[in-house]
């Protein structure tokens, strides 16, 4: 463990970021993006590269991340990538992981190891258009967060409460988030 | 275009699936999963492989999909993968793509090409713990859905309305979804 980078987190930079945002709230406005190209059937490829934050266009990524998306054969796909719900589950556990690592570092809590197992239960009557009452999405998402740490149960519980309250993806999933879709006809 | 697989979708299998679920609703109960291993700082690796559906454990994936997750340097990461919000945006556009391709096929609508551009606006005061009133997640998600198709504007609009109403990830994002987190102390 690097003492200036507990949990691999540059705590000096974290504090500097917090102070900078206190001085200039506009620094905290970010716009994240993704560009998805449909290939055929359930197969898509999504490109993630640029975003806007700290009042400028980020230039740090020299090439895009490419995410494959598909369905398994039982859902008429060809298994060229995880499906959309699995991507969201992965986003949720990634978000919690970052939040736990960063906030633990800020609190002086060492995380020696951490894994998260997430499950999302879904009734496909909604997706298949067979019910107006069954929701299309997951009716429950459950996460088991395994942490190895010398911190007390109380300190871990407080940490996890704070992280859940401040995790962007947890908020997106737990609470209503507006989605606006616009159709553009391509020639 | 394969006439038996419009938009690359096996419409016969789609109809067979719908009829099977009508006969046995339990076939529609699915459990999707992800396993995330935290590496250091913001870097995580997520493994997606098994799931439960049609009353059995799926065996079609012989190895896991591995998703890298990280933050960019401005958010204290090292750009080893997209961040958590970007993963969710990718899940949203993947879900809409699949829904559009499948439902268009079922309606006899040809999709010649399709791309989706999504943006998610977020104020990091929430994530940074600097505000109790600013939400942690996105305050708005906007999607431009570019479609090349011979279908009429009316038919495309009806299709997009139906897809948004039946898209699992759109529902997860737009509406409250319960997330339960359990702490497990590892030795």
UniProtKB/TrEMBL annotation, chains A, B:
Xref: InterPro entries: KH_dom-like_a/b, OsmC/Ohr_fam, OsmC/Ohr_hydroprdx_reductase, OsmC/Ohrsf
Coiled-coil intervals: none
Full protein name: OsmC family protein
Organism field: Igneacidithiobacillus copahuensis
Lineage per the UniProt record: Bacteria, Pseudomonadati, Pseudomonadota, Acidithiobacillia, Acidithiobacillales
